[in-house]
Write a sequence for this structure.
């Protein structure tokens, strides 16, 4: 199926690594120009090079979205790039439970996940409206439906992101701009890999290096996994009826569909791409 994305432009925040990289590459595979974003200049440039190799326009914008004024600047660069698809992907996670989470941890969770989404979206909205067509796709989490006791602040911040998606979709009624959310399950990105590795270390599980090798499929930064340890990790940390961990491609495919004109009639949803880990409401 042709997603009819050719000729469109997209900003993918946090696309210098992890799931965001795969989203950028997948959109490029569909003919979409991509503005790659991150803080690490070298990593972002390398991703942009791979995106451009697919025959589309690729540029880089750098900046820490938690620093004052940066999110707005990134959005203005996206406007000038011609991006009418915004993927709010950057969203750091950190582990804190109710006993350990300090006010600064709660603040960091909201400053990393909620405020950049607000600032980039708000700044880009006028040009999306003027274009008469646009997409705001924000990455949520399985933690929205199943809040994690070891990631309380992150879970709450991601719940806010879904809530914001609904109000934004309603706000944009009749403009041709839709707002949707994709909520990943446990996806083996470098960040999630570090967390999984920490959990196995803590509980003294099996051979640490074996897990590491299994969990990143031999060093692929996008985190493909096919080692024999995957079933153990799924059973212990991410039980889901599909029986495997998620891959960045699982999320990128969902984002590409929602970004496409094929999804014109899909608006205000949270699409759970989690292998069924959150169950059926
Ligand atoms: N992995 C999972 O299992 C999982 C599950 C549920 C939801 N999610 C969500 O999916 C999204 C992507 O996750 P991921 O696992 O790919 O995360 P990740 O590996 O931590 O993503 C890192 C990317 O985000 C950028 N980034 C982080 N903080 C930033 C900041 N303050 N300003 C600018 N850029 C920043 C990084 O830029 P630099 O490296 O250049 O600094 C990098 O490009 C996030 O919203 C995450 O919460 C992930």
């Amino acid at each position: 199926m042709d997603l009819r994305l050719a000729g469109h432009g997209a900003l993918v925040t946090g696309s210098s690594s992890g799931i965001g990289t795969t989203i950028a590459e997948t959109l490029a595979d569909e003919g979409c120009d991509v503005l790659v974003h991150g803080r690490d200049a070298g990593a972002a440039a390398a991703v942009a090079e791979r995106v451009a190799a697919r025959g589309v326009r690729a540029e880089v914008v750098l900046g820490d979205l938690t620093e004052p004024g940066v999110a707005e600047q990134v959005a203005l660069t996206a406007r000038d790039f011609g991006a009418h698809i915004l993927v709010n992907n950057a969203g750091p996670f950190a582990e804190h439970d109710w006993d350990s989470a300090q006010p600064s941890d709660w603040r960091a969770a909201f400053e990393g996940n909620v405020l950049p989404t607000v600032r980039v979206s708000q700044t880009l909205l006028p040009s999306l409206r003027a274009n008469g067509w646009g997409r705001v796709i924000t990455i949520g989490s399985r933690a929205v439906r199943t809040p994690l006791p070891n990631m309380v602040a992150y879970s709450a911040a991601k719940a806010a992101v879904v809530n914001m998606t609904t109000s934004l979709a309603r706000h944009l009624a009749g403009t041709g701009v839709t707002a949707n959310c994709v909520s990943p399950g446990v996806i083996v990105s470098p960040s999630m890999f570090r967390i999984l590795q920490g959990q196995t270390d803590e509980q003294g599980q099996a051979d640490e290096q074996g897990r590491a090798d299994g969990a990143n499929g031999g060093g692929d930064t996008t985190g493909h996994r096919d080692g024999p340890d995957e079933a153990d990790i799924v059973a212990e940390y991410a039980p889901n009826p599909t029986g495997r961990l998620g891959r960045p491609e699982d999320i990128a495919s969902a984002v590409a569909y929602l970004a496409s004109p094929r999804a014109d009639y899909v608006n205000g949803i949270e699409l759970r791409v989690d292998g069924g880990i959150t169950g059926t409401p």
Summary: The first helix runs from residue 18 to 29. Residues 186-245 form one domain.
